[in-house]
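Hi again,

Forgot to attach this to my earlier email, sorry! This is the prediction with heme C bound. I've pasted everything inline since the attachment limit keeps bouncing my files.
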Amino acid sequence: MPESRKSWRIGKRDTIFFLIVAAVVVALSLGSQERRTAATPNDAVHIQAGSRNGCLACHDSEGVQPQPAGHTKADQCFQCHLQPEQWVGDKP
Ligand code: HEC
Ligand code: HEC
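Structure tokens for the complex follow:
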């Protein structure tokens, strides 16, 4: 019986293909990290702010740290800005 198929060995083209796939995966994961919205800081002020009005006392246009112009009017801050790890809300 004649040998019709060559046995498969990892050649130069396979290596190049693998490197391209790896480069695309790395590029995509770096790109998605850059677009992550800023987390809510895990400090004394932020773990005790419990309501939209509490947040906006400092973050509305007259506050000490205003939201950027054109920021969404959405209420659920933590939906986009990660909730602080030690968050307790406005409980005493
Ligand atoms: C007493 C004032 C005050 C309150 C209340 C407050 N913040 Fe802040 N916030 C600040 C200040 C000042 C900064 C900027 C300095 C810093 O990063 O801590 C800041 C920064 C931030 C940032 C940006 C962090 C970054 O990395 O750029 C986010 C997001 C944020 N606050 C969300 C919130 C949310 C959500 C609430 C309500 C749960 C809230 N803040 C309540 C004063 C406040
Ligand atoms: C639908 C998503 C979304 C919601 C909900 C949201 N934000 Fe933001 N916020 C963003 C994005 C996007 C930015 C600009 C990118 C960034 O995080 O630096 C931003 C930026 C900010 C900044 C400036 C961050 C900095 O780096 O200086 C503050 C402060 C902030 N938001 C506060 C709030 C507060 C307070 C609430 C709740 C009332 C809120 N956000 C709700 C998406 C959101």
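Residues 38, 40-41, 43, 45-46, 49, 54-55, 57-59, 64-65, 77, 81 surround heme C (ligand 1) (CB under 6 Å). Residues 61 and 67 are 7 Å apart (CA to CA).

That should be everything now.

G.
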